[in-house]
Amino acid sequence: MAEKIEQQNGDNEAMQASQLAVFFELVSKGLSHSNVEVRRLFHGRGKCWPGLEQLTCDWVASQLLVNLFKPVDETFMCTLKQGLEELSTSDVWRNAQGKAIVLQHRYSDGAPTEVLWGELDSRPVVLELGCKYQLDIGRNQNFGLFLDMRNGREWVKEHARGKRVLNLFAYTCGFSVAAIEGGAEHVVNVDMARASLNKGRDNHRLNDHDTSNVTFMAHDIFKSWGKIKKYGPYDLIIIDPPSFQKGSFALTKDYKKILRRLPELLNAQGEVMACVNSPSVTPSFLIDSMREEAPTLTYIERLANPSEFADKDDDASLKVLLFR
């Protein structure tokens, strides 16, 4: 589910205060090219920047959201906060019209958030590819939209016209918003979390979508496929599960259970977007599993991830694969 379950790769690298100059250089460069769209400005999790593997930074509704994924020493923390304070007085920050700088400690229970400068808008509406999304900053680890999946949402928007779409593990329905915006005939969103689906309904309303063309199904797919099958057959099926969810989803075992259902859910010319974001699972897992469980489907291509999510090991990054 994109960054839903945080990548564990890089957890043993020591964070180095001496490398923070690189972080501030890249964040400043990103701010100087910033626009109204939500965007990642720094992605240490891809392990391309030694000593900064547990640090990310996002531009969210004119707010800078800095995330730490593991505890750091006092020197690193002081250097980071001092640098962010200096950034708040810079011409780059003023030109970007920044409103707040926030530090979220993702390694701690509840992911506590510190407001270092300005006043946090914890429920901003952001833009991506012309669509609006309601976020929720500071209350949870994830704020409601996985930025590394932007290219996937763009592909869906461009290929959804006139199609019936099934969106499995829908979360806050980002794919659904993109599909309806792109002219989909109907989208069925399935997720166990009713609260997430309610946020998805709000996202559709933000975009003035006719929600009579959208179904929100709070349902455990492993208990029954009957309700889902009733709305089919589908022209496009999107599978974007968490890497692991205790008690409900184990990726390598349960993904195959979904794939073997595809032939009975899809139209003859239907397409599948299969996603996985576990660093321990390579694209070949999806390709081989599809060949075993749904041999009528053929692998077409892997979508590129947004350039700002560069990863030292491409196989460890988000994998978005298309089948037909």
From TrEMBL:
Domain S-adenosylmethionine-dependent methyltransferase: residue ranges: 39-324
Listed InterPro entries: SAM-dep_methyl-trfase, SAM-dependent_MTases_sf
Top-level lineage group: Bacteria
Keyword Cell cycle: no
Keywords tagged on the record: Methyltransferase, rRNA processing, S-adenosyl-L-methionine, Transferase
EC number(s) on file: 2.1.1.264
Molecular function terms, GO-annotated: methyltransferase activity
Top-level enzyme category: transferase
GO BP, sorted A to Z: methylation; rRNA processing
PANTHER family referenced in this protein's UniProt entry, alphabetically: RIBOSOMAL RNA LARGE SUBUNIT METHYLTRANSFERASE YWBD-RELATED, SAM-DEPENDENT METHYLTRANSFERASE
Name by which UniProt lists this protein: Ribosomal RNA large subunit methyltransferase K
Organism placement in taxonomy: Bacteria, Pseudomonadati, Pseudomonadota, Gammaproteobacteria, Vibrionales
This protein's encoding gene: rlmK
